[in-house]
Amino acid sequence: MTLAEAVAEATRRLAAAGVEAARGDARLLICRLLGAGPELLLAQPERSLSQEEAARIEAAVARRAAREPVSRILGQREFWSLLFALNAATLDPRPDSETLVEAVLATLPDRAVALRILDLGTGTGCLLLALLSELPRATGCGIDINDEAVALAAENAARLGFGGRTDFRRHSWEDGLDLESEPWDVVIGNPPYIASGEIAGLAPEVAGYDPPAALDGGADGLSAYRALIPAAVGVLKPGGLLALEVGQGQAGPVEALLAAAGIDPLRRATDLGGIERCLLGRKARRNAASQAAVRRG
Ligand SMILES: C[S@@+](CC[C@H](N)C(=O)[O-])C[C@H]1O[C@@H](n2cnc3c(N)ncnc32)[C@H](O)[C@@H]1O
Fold it and tell me: pTM of the full predicted structure?
């Protein structure tokens, strides 16, 4: 069988399985399995496949036809132009989450400052590591409730050259965020925010393959924000930056939770689809009146 024939056959199978971008996925999957980019199909359509290659392609196409995402089959995903390994315990990083990285960078007047960043629900480590790739003196800690996610984030950090500036720990924000004595300059997070009842109705690629702990935000999708916002504010420096990804329609309610916890709103950042995807705010500095009250007390 030739490469072109294999792509045509895989396209038919994936389309029959309801995969939207059947041809693009078939081409990408097969060319990547052959160690090349999708341009291989144009360059060598008549390349003949060995039996071993054909068998590997068959297995991968069967997985995609069962609606497993291409990134999970290949075990990697590009985010912020960096390559991240994925596993069953981690969310597949989404392009929309680059909005948070971009928005945080846009608020920093000087990228050479030695900022300390805490990442809540780090998954693959993509948000923290993307920021560190732009902030040469920053250091960071990523926490996640899942041990395998923590181990994978540490592996990603080491492979991308950020092992010396990062620390990943298994920890739940439900237990508070009292991790270190020094407060953080920046706290970021992309918590689970899908309402429990909506998960089954998501695309099979999401509902069937992203881990439930990365998706499930409780009855109204806001449970994680309620737990982590007060904890995050408690460990943020006065004037420090808090940046949280939110789901569609959640900017208003999450901003209200932030305000109630002492965060002054700074900006709502919109993703490429026009959805308010990230909220930025600063921890209020104590004003003179409240400082006087503290002194009197
Ligand atoms: C939406 S995913 C985000 C992953 C990654 N930051 C990203 O943007 O791709 C949410 C992450 O929060 C983690 N998580 C869920 N509940 C948690 C908790 N109580 N404490 C710490 N991490 C939690 C999940 O395991 C998951 O990795």
Answer: 0.94
